[in-house]
Design brief:
β2 and β3 form a beta hairpin. The chain has seven helices and three strands; from the N terminus they run βααααββααα. The chain has 328 residues and is mainly alpha-helical. The protein is elongated, with a radius of gyration of 36 Å. It has a three-stranded antiparallel beta sheet with strand order 1-2-3, with no helix packed on it. α1 packs antiparallel against α2 (81-116) and α3 (136-146) packs across α5 (211-277).
Length: 328
Amino acid sequence: SYTLFDFGSLKAKKRSSIHLNEASKLSFKKLEDELILSVVKVHLELFKAIKIVDLYESSLGIRKQQFLAVKNRFDLGEATRSDLLRSKASISGAEAQLKVGQANVKKLRESYKTLVGKFPDNPILPQIETKEPSELGTKIRVGMENDLSLKILMLEEKALKEELRSTEKSRLPNLNLSGSLAYGDSQTLGNNISSGRISLTSNLTLYSGGQKKARVKIASNKLAAKAIDIAVRKKTLQRDITTKWLDLMALKSSVIAKQEETNALKELYESVFEEWRLGGKTSLDTDQAYQNFLNSEVELVASTTDILIAKFDLLAEIGTLRTKLQLR
């Protein structure tokens, strides 16, 4: 049996299937992009955690040196027992801080292995230019053009349009061609005989109890809902790009101030430590000055890495992450 004419209902179904197939391919690509971004983020988070552990190890060494200095002064009667106990407690605090940092590194290494399939070597910052479009409006336009979720929704909308078209045309008459061929022995003539038949039929449903009308209504409602999904996605994408752009600008501004603060706190600690050696400051003053300097260094490392994470996050949002990473 072969359909000769059905007002394009079958072709509409075929086009709908093609659009859905293209949407499924983009869905897989979207999953790949999400995986790439996850690997980039865990790589940078691991780099940050290792650098912070390095700072904590350095801090522990300095705390131990300070304890020895306080102990020498205590033996000479120039420091109190409280100074000695406070210095010893600072070593315990630094050791606890280091253990927490090392546990975080171990957790991130496991996360990296889960995503990549092997444990990482010592991670380094990517030597790659991550220059973004200079204006927010440009980013939003590029994001609208590249967003895979939006493309998937649009392909699904096209598929629903074709499905609606097919459903509407299924209510119309169709023309079918069918044929058959038979071959066998004739019981009356005693010889072989073959016969064939070709028929041309047309079908038209006069009454379906409202089923076909309901199918058209359902298809129409699905199409309207998909149009709403597209409008919502556009608004959401615009909001997300704007938010990530502003977050990146805020991080860039804060890291400059954080660098200046770190430099100032380092000079302050060195000054307080020198005064403590001369007897002008207590060990508490020295501990507080050093802790403030250490906290500032940790925040600077975190902010510097967070800028890169924010850049890659923004690149992923506007759909140019693969290009920047030179991936297919």
